[in-house]
TrEMBL record:
The lineage of its organism: Bacteria, Bacillati, Actinomycetota, Actinomycetes, Kitasatosporales. This is Helix-turn-helix transcriptional regulator. Residues 16-115 form the HTH hxlR-type domain. Pfam families: HxlR. Keywords: DNA-binding, Transcription, Transcription regulation. The keyword Transferase does not apply.
Length: 124
């Protein structure tokens, strides 16, 4: 069965596996964290904060926990003093870079159109 057939008809029913991908991408920060880890490799939380900008330590921690829970990042703890932790993408996280980059390309092309439409809608 091809990709088109898998998504046709009841492809987006409540129990559809494709919804998992949309739920993973729906969080504002999760895709940003995946993208930054994909571009820079394993990183410590402080480095992620510096690279992302505009995200609080708590929100980053929540995103990392969510991504770890979803099997998209792995947490590596090193037995050092002081303890060191870094995060890296799993195979599933690496594979997610393809649709994230595609969404970025879409946004670069259509974000102004969407924002203009939202402005028009808001002024009615």
């Amino acid at each position: 069965m091809g990709e088109r057939e898998e998504l046709a008809g009841d492809g987006f029913a409540a129990d559809c596996r494709a919804r998992v991908a949309f739920e993973v991408l729906a969080n504002r920060w999760d895709s940003v964290v995946v993208f930054i880890l994909g571009e820079g490799g394993p990183m410590r939380p402080r480095d992620l904060l510096d690279r992302i900008g505009g995200i609080s330590p708590k929100v980053l921690n929540d995103a990392l926990r969510r991504l770890e829970c979803n099997g998209l990042v792995e947490r590596h703890r090193y037995a050092e003093a002081p303890p060191r932790v870094d995060y890296a993408l799993t195979e599933a996280g690496e594979a997610l870079l393809v649709p994230i980059r595609a969404m970025g390309a879409w946004a670069a092309r259509y974000a102004d159109t969407v924002l203009a439409s939202q402005d028009r809608f808001g002024t009615r």
